[in-house]
Amino acid sequence: MSLPPATTGPATAGHDTTGHGGGVHAAWLPPEAFAPLGSRRVLVRGDGMLVDTVFDEVERACAGHGGRADRTAGDREVDLVLALRDAGPLPAPAAALARAAGAGGPLGAEGFALARAEGVTVVLADAPAGLLYGLFHVVRLGAAAFEGDHPARRHAPAMARRMLDHWDNVDVHPVMGQVERGYAGGSIFWRAGAARRDLDRVRAYGRLLAACGVNAISVNNVNVHATEARLLTGRLGDVAELADALRPYGVRVHLSVTFAAPVVLGGLPTADPLDPAVRAWWAAATRQVYERIPDFGGYVVKADSEGQPGPFTYGRDHADGANLLAEALAPFGGVVHWRAFVYNHRQDWRDRSTDRARAAYDHFAPLDGRFRDNVVVQAKFGPIDFQPREPVSPVLAAMPATRLAVEFQVTQEYTGQQQHVCYLAPCWSEVLTFAPWGPGGPTVADVAAGSGPGPATGGGLAAVANVGDDPFWTGHPLAQANLYAYGRLAWDPGLDPIAVLDEWIDLTFPASTVGDPALVRETLHAVMDDSWRTYERYTAPLGVGFMVSPARHHYGPDVDGYEYSRWGTYHFADRDGVGVDRTRATGTGFTGQYPQPWSQVYESLSDCPDELLLFFHHVPYGHVLRSGSTVIQHIYDTHFAGVQQVAQMRQRWRRLAGVIDPAVHARVAERLDEQLRCAIEWRDQVNTYFFRKSGVPDVRGRAIH
Known about the structure:
By secondary structure, this protein is of the alpha/beta class. It folds into three domains: 31-155, Chitobiase/beta-hexosaminidase domain 2-like (Chitobiase, domain 2, 2-Layer Sandwich); 162-502, Alpha-Beta Barrel (TIM Barrel), CATH 3.20.20; 537-580 and 618-694, Alpha-Beta Complex (Alpha-d-glucuronidase, C-terminal Domain), CATH 3.90.1330.10. Helix 14 packs across helix 15 (497-508). The relative contact order is 0.08.
């Protein structure tokens, strides 16, 4: 196999991983990150495609940094051994270290152990994927992997499936373009109705994913249109090419399919999941997929949601629909990810008994226990739609007999669209460590990993991807940190998000490539650590959400943009107050979908956390928060503070001019200018709206238009 071409060198540090004109940013895998490994004597032992990938990575690093790469033990001294447990004899003292590293029993399909003594570092794995992840762990450790002694430590992913969903269209959609909710250019897979076939770029992407821990992707939009539907049959070869390019990095390909495929592709008169002819069609189509792609991961389905076809057409439910596909996939070990994002998108804003937040639970909780073992119900982390602040979805506590995957959105649809700095790992960490049954009980991460209170094995994590064909992969160079952090938290949900950011900084801005490493680290933390909460401060307050502009595809403010729409995303602001009453006592009853203690906490006006108050309660503007501020004053204060914080971020970033890669600096500076402009727009529109609604002035006398 061949690796993506190397970068062009220190003068353009972090660029040109694929040989494209103008260069493609190396993200968290610049050549300099491999210097500690590449300057050592390295032995790689074992067989298999992924072991070949490990050796190729080591060989290239050693060629660039003066080390030596071997595949046979011999008598030569070594500094690092990367070996499969059954690969045969190792040189001493590596053999003794390997025995110590493997003493705790099996390491699993993706696990590895690392130990160091007497000047030798050993990474041991049971399977090739584990060795690949062990290699990238050594790269993350940098020089520390070769200093002092390390007692044997075992590493294994908490989630078996760590997946990215690409909302990439094969044809350019007339509204959503080449990539729906894409903020980094076009697709790296598709262009204008055809396969892009830039497989160097795809391989480089797979390499980035393996280095942060992602092991699965779906390659097309969950909103499956006519051309995309044919990827299952007539255009399966295009999918196979992507699978071939990603396989050397342990990334399995999945495909979004339309539930109506037997009709639109097979010519059947029905897609009824209980019809024998429909079942036979799916079985035959799936068999052909596995004949072409033996390690195919499975299907992703959006059904009976926002106009997509589904089993409701035939009087069936989601268990019937999901089990149909699961039956076809089961002989091959595949899974179906069946999205729980199902709700009435034609609501009447005057009907306050209808609540979009209730929908996923109402549809899916009654079906618990009816799904086949290879069905993964994929639920958004919150009950609405990836807002900057939502409560954890009650679905995640309601289906103990069903495999559940938690879905995040790495692409920044509602968090600044990669025009704004918004480091999302602190948000995801809060979700993953949330305990639905109360403090000390199982967490959301436990549910996703399969160690929750019920019998179901976990479905893992899934997230909407944020990359495109932009030279920086994510449009905003700092948005790369979200993709990196997603993979790392999927591997280990207990990681500190700020420590993960440190990892990303060390890899992306190696000390040898910047003028002042301490200043770079200090600046990036100052800009990014609190950026999610900064974004929250200048946008929708106290969990109410969805004050975005429909005309600009959810970018920028429009306080009433969805208030009288069919989509069910309301804030119900009037002259007396704001917020949605979701209590059991007087509202939609949504709080009753939670187990105790959260059902009572969210029901109680006095106990509900401030940051979620308007999600659960309609309150007067003068209501005093637990912080001591009134709701209206909190709105004013946070919107002024948010703008001030963005101005400080921009000022801090300017200090890095001449210190880091000029192209990176210029792109971020341009985006920070736009972020400040947009934050001011948010502040003025939101504050003005609520001043005019409430008639209550700012106690600090600041200008509100």
